[in-house]
Amino acid sequence: MEERFIIELTQSLKNFLPEVSLTVTLSLVILLDLIFGRRFKNIGAFVSLAGLVVTLFFTIKQYGGSYQIFRGMFVVDPYSTFFKFVFLLSAFVIVIFSLQSYELRETSARRRIGEYYFFILSLTLGAFLMAGSVNLIMMYLSLELVSISSYILAGYIKESERSSEASMKYVIYGALSSGLMIYGISLVYGLTGELNIYAINASFLSSGYSPIVLMISLVLILAGFGYKISAVPFHYWTPDVYEGAPITVTAFLSVSSKAAGFAMLVRFLKASFIDRTITLGIEGAWAVIQGLPLTEIVAVLSALTMTVGNIIAIWQNNLKRMLAYSSIAHAGYILMGVVVMQNLGISAMLIYFLAYLFMNLGAFYCVMLVAEKTGSEDIEVYKGLGYRAPFLSIVFTIFLVSLTGIPPTFGFIGKLYLFSALINAKVIWLAVVGVLNSVVSLYYYIRVVRNMFLGDPESGKEPINFSPAHIVVMLILVIPTLLFGVYFTPIVNFAQISVAMFGLR
Amino acid sequence: MIPLSWYLFLSLILFTIGVLGVLIRRNAIVIFMCIELMLNSVNLALVGFSSYIGNEIGQMLVFFVLVVAAAEVSVGLAIIIAIFRNRLTVNIDEINLLKW
User: Fold this and answer.
1) Hey, are the CB atoms on A195 and B57 less than 8 Å from each other?
2) Between the N and C ends of chain B, which has fewer C-beta atoms within 10 Å?
3) Tens digit of each residue's pLDDT (9 = 90 or more) over A169-180
4) In the 8-state DSSP scheme, what is residue A289?
5) Does residue B12 lie within any of the structural domains?
6) For B35, which of A162, A176, A190 is closest by C-beta distance?
7) How is residue A463 annotated by DSSP?
8) Is the pLDDT of residue B5 over 70?
9) How many domains does chain B have?
10) Which one is predicted more confidently, A473 or A104?
11) Which CATH number does the domain housing residue B48 bear?
12) What is the pLDDT of residues A310-332, one digit of tens each?
């Protein structure tokens, strides 16, 4: 018995190498920063980059396999590995951003910079675990690992009143919704006596619980997920936190933490609330447990999220806050892929995440550079920027166009697949709402472009110069945004084989 | 033996008090106490369910909830201290730089 357990454990650890290497890296970051931190200020960043590359290597080696490890606590499958790529890419880009960030260089944060990279890595680790966990204990713990790291990161600049206020609001909303979520988990446990999501599904199917009880626990658990992905009734923290937090952290939260929330949400819904004994006519379609209005709940959530996000974004004059509302709207678009309840919708969602990664990080990077040179994130300073910094303005325009979803950008491909999945599943009303929302979003994205190219510069007409390092980072982000807008077949294929989840059709 | 429903009602009442406290109270430290109350009411429900169902998974989850609650509150108190140094207040109505 004991011997078998040890064999199982070593087998599991072998398939857990990406997470192990991340853990080793984050311990190294703290240790090396304590020893050498005084002499080499950026040692944490370089160790993190090296560690992320090693993790990427293990993740690539893992891709394609599908197995369950640690006695059904955690799975490794193409779906979770796809999300691991997203987290790794975004962590890599964010570490590079942080190396160039003026906020971290010129405040007291520079004395604690080693810990900053530690928390970036621990957030990534939490996101990795979120993508793969199939047990409600693991789900709750990894969600909290991500949350607690992001509370600290949001308030990293201690002397900034905005930064600490942001992290205060984040902690209160976060704790409230994770409290609701754990209450929902306790109800599910009370109903089924199980915490493994496959076992929960089996119990749901075999003993027909009343849909009302299922609904209450589902809604409570959705509160936790909704807060992570900033879906509408749980979005109140998003604008405040995104505006107050250091901009590198904002960019990181908007991609990694949101992607992790979606990864877990979709796995949870698909594994627990889908009746896999029924086969619907369409290949890869899911049948929801009888009597549970899951599709309707998610559809309403999606419509509300994108509408509220887009409409409030129109009034924003602070670019960071505008991008916060736009990220809420994007959560709504991505939820459209879940509404479909088909593998097709999930693959569209994965494509959209890759697009969102490049364009959103790029947009935040441009805002960061402009804020560094002009000292403000207000839309006023963008007046006439097209003449003062033509390269940045063009790149920023491409990101904004991609966020709107206009060809020939990656954002368009993402939206195209989402809408076609919706129309394929005959959820026409939501597709109409989505298209109308894209039109609304055009207004506030283009307002920035108009200010850059048609506005007269008011403050200081001298041109703004950027170092080659800045230009390289901009190119790294803008080239995929354009390239995958026209050459998207490999991405689509990659997403389509990545929808496979362990043990699920 | 006390029936399960009593535990569940007590936990529901405690949970509701906790949620209302988070929404209504204005002092950050009291808000954190209310969050603790929410998590502990969940623990009560879990232990009740666990002994009713007769497996130990629920009691195991209680330990994890306790750990998470401790971590969350320690981070939360650190943030309250950071904000108190800047603003000399912990009333969340006065912490209002960021809005709309």
Assistant:
1) yes
2) N
3) 999 999 999 999
4) P
5) yes
6) A176
7) P
8) yes
9) 1
10) A473
11) 1.10.287.3510
12) 999 998 889 999 999 999 999 99
Q: Does A100 touch chain B (CB under 8 A)?
A: no
Say whether A172 and B28 touch across the interface (CB within 8 A).
yes
In a domain, B94, yes or no: no
Query: Which pLDDT band, with edges at 50, 70 and 90, does A459 fall under?
Result: low
Residue carrying the six token digits 């976060």: A174
**Residue pointed to by tokens 């509300």:** A304
Print the domain residue range for A361: 295-505
For residue B98, is it within any domain?
Answer: no
Chain B positions touching A166 (Cβ under 8 A) are: 98
State the sign of the Cα–Cα–Cα–Cα dihedral A446, A102, A45, A156: negative
CB contact under 8 A, A185 and B61: yes
Tokens found for residue A19: 């997470």
∠ at Cα A388 (A324, A107), nearest 5°?
50
Is B96 domain-assigned? no
Tell whether ipTM is more than 0.85: yes
Q: Is A427 on the interface with B (CB under 8 A)?
A: no
CB atoms near residue A252 (< 10 Å): 29
pLDDT band at B65 (very low <50, low <70, confident <90, very high): very high
Are the C-beta atoms of A332 and A309 separated by less than 8 Å?
yes
- pLDDT, tens digit, for every residue of A403-433? 998 888 999 999 999 999 999 888 899 999 9
CA atoms within 13 A on the CB side of A361: 31
pLDDT at residue A189, rounded to an integer: 93
Q: Do B98 and A166 touch (CB under 8 A)?
A: yes
Nearest Cα of chain A lies from the Cα of B80 at a distance, in angstroms, of 7
Q: Is A103 part of any domain?
A: no
| Count of structural domains, chain A | 1
pLDDT at A186 over 70: yes
Question: Cα separation of A198 and B84, whole Å?
Answer: 46
| A446 belongs to a structural domain | yes
How many Cα neighbours within 13 Å face the side chain of A165? Answer: 21
**Closest CB to B79 among A168, A179, A194:** A168
Say whether B83 and A165 touch across the interface (CB within 8 A). Answer: yes
| Domain-embedded: residue A269 | no
Q: Does A193 touch chain B (CB under 8 A)?
A: yes
Fill in the DSSP letter of residue A94. H
Residue range B6-22: mean pLDDT, rounded: 95
Alpha carbon of A256: minimum distance to chain B alpha carbons (Å) = 20
Identify residue A372 by its one-letter amino acid code.
E
In a domain, A97, yes or no: no
Query: By residue range, what is the domain housing residue B17?
Result: 4-87
Would strands A74-76 and A67-69 be described as parallel, antiparallel, or unpaired? Answer: antiparallel
| Eight-state DSSP code of residue A263 | H
Which comes out higher in pLDDT, residue A187 or A374? A187
